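Input (Synaptojanin-2-binding protein):
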Amino acid sequence: MNGSVHSSTSVVDIKLKRGPAGLGFNIVGGVDQQYVANDNGIYVAKIKEDGAAALDGRLEEGDKILAINGVKLEDRTHKHAVDLFRTAGENVELRVLKKTPHHMNGPTGSQPEHESSASSLGILVALAGVAAVCAFIYMRNLRKPF
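Output:
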């Protein structure tokens, strides 16, 4: 991820009920483990299938968690943030800054990655066809008597 500034912000409050496997997501970041350049924030790294966060559906990978049960996560170490999550109780309220397309590295278009790969493959096949035609014409010209 790069450290670009959010061009549009969307802060949401999400209430989750801790399930058998916890809240169902992993975090990264903190003052000791910056995930985003020049940002000490705590970010959602992975949403676990069938976990509380996945079942709720609002929390996404790349979202920045601003607070948990009213406790701000700004300028916290990664370990301190993890401890806050572990001791948050059964009902947990998260204040979350939703990720924006301008915040993430990688493609920003709406085209899925597999379609982009298919387009690249099509271009390569077309180029191979052109090369084959050129080779055929070249070889045909070599056979002509002088």
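The chain has two domains: 11-97, 111-146.
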